[in-house]
Design brief:
With about 650 residues, the protein is α+β, with helices and mostly antiparallel strands. It is about 30% helix and about 20% strand.
Amino acid sequence: MKYNTGLIDNSRSPYRKRQSAALGSVKWCDGFWNSRFDQCRNVTLPHLWDRLSDPNLGHAMTNLRIYAGLEEGEFQGTPWQDEWVYKWLEAGSYVHGYTGDADLDQQMEEIITVIQSAQEEDGYIASQILRFKERFLRPQNHELYVMGHLLSAACAHYRSTGRESLLGVARKCADYLHNTFMPPRNPQYAHFGINPSYIMGSVELYRTTGENKYLDLALNFIEMRSSEPGGTDLNQTHVPLKKEEHVVGHSVFWTYLYAGATDAYMECGDTALLEAVERLWQDLVTSKLYVHGGVCALHHAVSIRKDPVHEAAGASYELPNSTAYNETCSQIGNLMWNWRMLMVNGEARHADLMELNMYNSIISGISLSGDSWFYTNPLRWYGKDHPLLSQDAYERFQPGEPPRRHHICCPSNLLRTIAGLHGYFYSLSEKGIHIDHYGASIFDGELENGSRLKLSQETEYPWHGRIRIVLDDVPEEPFAISLRIPAWAFGAALTVNGQNESPPSANAYATLERHWRVGDLIELDLPMNVRLLEANPRVEACRNHVAVMRGPLVYCLESPDLPENVPVCDIRIPRDIQLKQHFDPELLGGITVLEGEANAMESRTWGQSLYRELNSCNSVVLPIRLIPYYAWSNRGISEMTVWIPLG
C-alpha cells in the first residue's frame, strides 16, 4: 500500500487523464490560502475539537465512549453525530501530514482507540444505534452516511501517518457493509442510499488497499439505487443514475453521488456512468448554478416528479436570491465532484467551477475569525428581520460559540476542505504537471514518471492576476507545464524567460513543453478587469439586475458601506459605472474593494402595503463600495445583495 499520496490516490486508476498530486508535495507560501490554512490549524481545528468533545456542547465523543462501554449515558445529538469525529480526523490527518505535528498525531491516536473500542465484533459502527436500538430501521438514521465518512477519514489518516490503526477499523466496517448490502440482499435496503458518502469512501478504500471487493461494494451502492419500487428524487432513487437527465433532490446527496460515481468510473471505465455525470453537469451549469457557485437553491421544494425535497436544486432557472439556501456542504460537494471530473477529462471548465466555489460560496460559510459559520449562503439579505427558512445562519453572529449539538455538518466540512485544499492546486499527467489553481505555493515532488520537480508559484492572487513560476529543480528530460487560463481571463499574456508565448485561450490550459533549466521563469498575467454580469431572462429574480465580478471573485453591496439611512435595496447601478479597484489592507483582513458612484432612489415607507402606484421619485448620486462576497456579514448583522438593479 502507498501513503503520502493525494486527496485521492488515483495514481493507478486506468480511466483518468490526471493524477492527484501528493499532499506532501505542496506547501503554501505567504498569501491568501496560507493565512486560511494557518487559521484552520490554529483556530478552527482546536475550536471544533473543544465543541465535539464537550459532553454538553457536542457530545460526539461522548456518544462513542458510551457505545464503547467506557462510560454510561444516552445518545445525544443528530443521527449523524459520528461524522463530526470522522471529518475532524480527516482534517487532522491533512494538517498532520502538512506540519508533522506530533501532539496532533498523538491526539488522533487517542481518538482512534475509542473508535476501535466502539466498533462491534462484526464491523458495524454507528453510535446512533444507542438511540434506535436496531440496525437499519430507516434510511434517515444515516448509518451508511457516517460509515462512509469513517472510510474516507481512515484513508486520509493512513496517507498522513503510514499507520493502519484507523484503516483497520474501516476495513472491518467495509467488510460488514459488503456482507450486508451485496446481492442477494434484503430488498428493503435498496432505499438506504441516503447521503452517499460511502461510495467515495468505498472507492478510496479500494484504492488504498487494492482489494477489489471494496470497488464492487461501491458499484453495488450505485446500482442498487432505484432497483426496487418506491424511490424518491430526494435521495436520487426515483430514476437510476445512468438514466437520469435532471439534477434533482437534496444537493449534498446528489453532489456526493455524482462525485462517487466519477470516482467509480475512474476505476471501472463504465461509459454509462461517465455519460450520466457529464449530462448532469451540463444540466447544472446551464440552468441551476448560481453566479457565486451555489448549487442548492431551495430550502424546501417539490421535484419535477412531484417528490418532496429539502435542501434542493430547484427547477431550471429557479434561482431566488433572498430565499436561497445554498448550504455550504452543497458547494463543498460540488467542489469534490468537479475536481474528480477534472481528473477524468482534464478540462479547464471543471477547475473554473471549482475556483468559483472556493473563492465565493464555500469560504463565505466561515467567518473571518474562523470560529463561526453559515449554513445558508443567500445572494440577498434584508437584515435582522430577514426570516430564516432553515438551519442556523444566525450562528455567524455569535463568534466563538457555535457549533452546538445539532449544527455540525457545515463547520466540520469546511474544516476538512480548508485543511486539505492544497491537494486541489496541482495535478499530474504523463506529460508533466498542471497548475490548476493559483496561490502562493511550492510544489516539490515527483512527476508521474518518478522524476523530481520543484517549482515556486509567486502571486498575490486573487487580488492580482500576476503569477510567476520559478523552476528550482527540474528533470533532465523534457516535460510539460500546463497553466489554466480561466474563462474570464480574456487577453491573458504568457512569457517564458521574458519571451512571449502564443496568446493562451480562455477556459483552457496553456501547455509549455520543452527541456527546462533551473532558474527558468514563467510569467502569466491574467487581466483582473471588473465585469458586470447579467442573468438569463428566465432567471426571474435577476431581471434588470447585474452582478459584479473581478477575477474569480463575486462582489456584493453591504449596508456598512452605505450611509446609515440608505437601504441596500434603494441602490441602482448605472450601466456605464466606472468601478475603481483599491486594495485596503485594513478592511476585512485585507481585500480589494471596488468603488464608484451609483444612484440612491428616494426612500418611501411602504408600511403594510404590498403594492402601490408607481410615482416618479428623485434620486441622488452617492459613492458606493463593493466587497468580495465571501467577506460579508463580518461586521455585524447587515443588509447585503449580490444582484443590484440597473438604473
